[in-house]
Design goal:
407 residues, Hypothetical protein af1432, mainly alpha, two-stranded antiparallel sheet, 2 domains
Length: 407
């Protein structure tokens, strides 16, 4: 069943976008939220089921062969991994049927020896100096300075943001997107501030400006398009999962997911040659990148990201999301860390972009259990992310990559 119109709870919270496919898993969840009827597009009834029937055994086998390798670090006999794997096999098989060519990195390259590679920079050195990458965006800095004064008005915040035309356009696109689902069009930053509040809009400003700040990463090491698409997907999963758990200010979860790998960009910018050795080791030994970073560079991107977030004076919640997204135990399994950890794994599993290595990092089952999330949420969450993803990519980049059309 395909939704004919955007779907909202009785309290006005956006749930699913028009065009999303409803399945049995959705119905239990919608009922618990007080949604008892929806508008269905009759012409699309049964579309997904007919697609499923058309998937032949060869295509499904190709999808499973590709994904089995990517999931090799995870125990597929445990939930939620069993349900996640089942969903993404079907999803990738449909993409294969439409002509998508999956990405896989060669593991033939050998890491440079310690003698051939310059020594890694110390953690303090990574975050020192006049490098733009560790400086806060100017607009965000001005907003933070204003917020340090208790009498600052929302008008003053809006005035600072409105001076940056590009930022204004992107913010208005974002608050008018399905992520927020406001009933009326928001045509001014002042109106956005009044609806979201200064803290939420400041957080969104940070996310948008940081995305446009990293331009000097060597493309032979990392595709920035793929990096930010994964980050956007992680942000959407974080926001939606937080919404299921009735977390307040889900915008911070979107930004936490968006910035979770920000430390990797610092490492690539400041010690690219050393980082290439970590990439080679990860591919050869089939390690997740953060473990190869620890081995070759004596730190990892979550630690660098945490220190950068502290330098930027981000909120404690955002610091936990960024600093513990691979190891939620370091944040005592706080809900913020667990949600972004789960969202990162889901984003790797569902994204057509593959970052640096083939293997999806291992999902910490304790983190899943600590949240209380149900496996029944996986299918509707993936569909909601798919429904919102393309629009959010347009917000940040103004256009879609051809690969996005395969998703």
């Amino acid at each position: 069943m395909i939704l004919a119109e955007d779907l909202f709870t009785p309290t006005g919270r956006f749930v699913l976008a028009a065009g999303a496919s409803l399945q049995g898993d959705h119905l239990k969840i919608l009922k618990s939220w007080g949604i008892i009827e929806v508008d269905i597009a009759e012409a699309s009834l049964g579309e997904e089921y007919s697609q499923n029937l058309e998937l032949n055994a060869e295509i499904i086998e190709r999808a499973e062969s590709y994904l089995w390798r990517r999931f090799i670090l995870n125990d597929l006999d445990q939930e939620p991994l069993t349900s996640l794997y089942r969903r993404v096999v079907h999803r990738f098989a449909l993409s294969l049927q439409q002509g998508w060519d999956p990405v896989a990195f060669s593991d033939a390259a050998r890491p440079a020896s310690e003698q051939d590679c310059p020594p890694p920079l110390s953690v303090p050195h990574l975050l020192k100096g006049d490098v733009d990458i560790v400086s806060l965006p100017t607009v965000y800095t001005h907003i933070v300075e204003l917020l340090d004064h208790p009498n600052t008005s929302s008008y003053q915040i809006a005035k600072v943001i409105s001076k940056d035309a590009s930022l204004t356009v992107r913010l208005l696109r974002l608050v008018n997107s399905p992520v927020y689902g406001f009933s009326g069009k928001i045509d001014s930053i002042s109106r956005a501030v009044s609806l979201l509040g200064t803290d939420e809009l400041t957080t969104l400003t940070l996310g948008i400006t940081v995305v446009n700040q990293f331009e000097n990463i060597p493309s032979e090491l990392l595709s920035m398009d793929s990096f930010w698409r994964h980050s956007i997907r992680c942000g959407l999963f974080s926001k939606i999962l937080a919404g299921y758990l009735d977390e307040k200010a889900v915008e911070k979860y979107f930004i936490g997911g968006l910035l979770h790998d920000i430390g990797r960009l610092v490492m690539l910018d400041r010690m690219g040659s050393q980082y290439s050795g970590a990439i080679a080791k990860a591919r050869l030994d089939h390690l997740p990148m953060y473990r190869a970073e620890q081995d070759r560079l004596k730190t990892d991107h979550s630690i660098i990201g945490k220190l950068l977030a502290e330098k930027w004076r981000l909120s404690p919640a955002l610091i936990r999301m960024i600093g513990s997204h691979h190891s939620p135990r370091l944040a005592h399994y706080s809900r913020e860390a667990c949600i972004v950890h789960i969202a990162d794994i889901f984003a790797h599993a569902c994204g057509h972009e593959v970052l640096l290595v083939n293997e999806i990092p291992e999902l910490q089952i304790k983190a899943w259990k600590e949240t209380g999330l149900s496996e029944e949420l996986i299918a509707p969450t993936i569909q909601q992310v798919d429904a919102e993803f393309k629009e959010i990519v347009r917000v940040f980049f103004g256009k879609l990559d051809p690969a996005d059309d395969a998703e």
